[in-house]
Amino acid sequence: MDYTAYHFTVTPPQPGSEILMALISDFGFESFDSNKTGFSAYIQEAFIDKVDLEEFKFDDFSFTYQIEKIPLVNWNSEWEKNFEPVLVENLLCIRAPFHPKNTLVKHEIVIMPKMSFGTGHHQTTRLMCRQMFETNFKNKKVLDMGCGTGILAILAKMLGAKEATGIDIDAWSVENAVENCASNGFPEISIKKGDLAELMNESPFDIILANINKNILKAQIPVYAQKLNENGILFLSGFFTTDLDELKVTSEQNGFSFFSSKNEAEWAMMILSKN
Questions:
Q1: Residue 81 — pLDDT band, cuts 50, 70, 90?
Q2: Spatial CA neighbour of 156 closest among 168, 176, 138
Q3: What would the mean pLDDT of 186-193 be, rounded to a whole number?
Q4: Mean pLDDT for the chain?
Q5: 57, 67, 204, 275: least buried by Cβ within 10 Å?
Q6: Region 153-166: what's the mean pLDDT?
Q7: pLDDT tens for residues 10-23?
Q8: 28 torsion bin: left (phi>0), alpha (psi -120 to 50), beta (else)
Q9: How is the beta sheet containing 38-44 ordered, strand by strand?
Q10: Alpha carbons 176 and 273: distance in angstroms, whole number
Q11: Could you tell me which of 196, 126, 186, 181 has the C-alpha nearest to residue 162?
Q12: Which ranges constitute the DSSP H helices of the chain?
């Protein structure tokens, strides 16, 4: 599938960029890359008809944008130009093969994605990974929903998970996650192409990790409730701090108890337990 990039120039960039990103996320944008003058937002070409930017008028900032069609074959070069290693304190470095080895961290995950969405969500990746180090994964059965490159499934196995499964709707992501799991020493991680229908075929998990976006999380939370064991743990991320209360309400309506939340800049994650 092809993607379209919207390159926004925001004046002043802050807090205008954060406000605009939060608003346009409802159109289906999958990733955001911040820069000094604003940000770029990426959306599948099939969904661009839903994007209506003319409705947004602000007193405190203004914005302009340019649209660029980005074929799938261009993602590797774009990723190499923009991707920086993800550091989680001294615990973890997520890097590409062309980055030097980091000898100052306890763990490394080396990935080479087929296409690039990770750069816009480094905050949520760090948030999820940091909290994973504070959670007991020993002998747990774990789901990485919307697994992308497979980072969270790989880290779960590094932290002692007995079994890890990744599910993603995108065929390129599935192929890439399989390769990344194998190259990081965990070929036994089960990566499957699918969505909620695929999840419904799975037996319950002890821990579910879902780093996606607000709208998808809201739609999938009821199924997470069905597929999580009693006293199981649900990690949610990929959304803005302004979405936290809305997701908390949806989760509690589906039998979850709120445990804690963390944020990095405008991005947030939350942890819940099944009652």
A1: low
A2: 138
A3: 97
A4: 89
A5: 57
A6: 98
A7: 999 888 888 898 88
A8: left
A9: 31-35, 38-44, 3-11, 62-70
A10: 30
A11: 186
A12: 13-24, 75-82, 122-132, 151-158, 171-183, 196-200, 214-226, 244-253
The Cα 84–Cα 121 span in angstroms is 12
Q: Are 208 and 141 in contact (CB under 8 A)?
A: no
**pLDDT tens digits for 84-134?**
788 899 999 998 888 899 999 999 999 876 654 444 457 888 999 999 999
CA geometry: angle at 123 spanning 243 and 140, to 5°?
85
pLDDT exceeds 70 at position 78: no
Tell me the one-letter amino acid at 131.
Answer: Q
Report d(CA 249, CA 258) in Å as an integer. 9
171: burial class by Cβ within 10 Å (0-12, 13-18, 19+)? exposed
Residue 224's Cβ-side half-sphere holds a number of Cα atoms within 13 Å equal to: 34
**Looking up tokens 């690039």, which residue turns up?**
116
Cβ atoms of 224 and 209 closer than 8 Å: no
Q: For residue 266, which of 245, 240, 248, 246 has the smallest C-alpha distance?
A: 240
Q: What is the CA radius of gyration of the chain?
A: 18
Q: Which residues have a Cβ under 8 Å from the Cβ of 245 and sit 6 or more positions away?
A: none
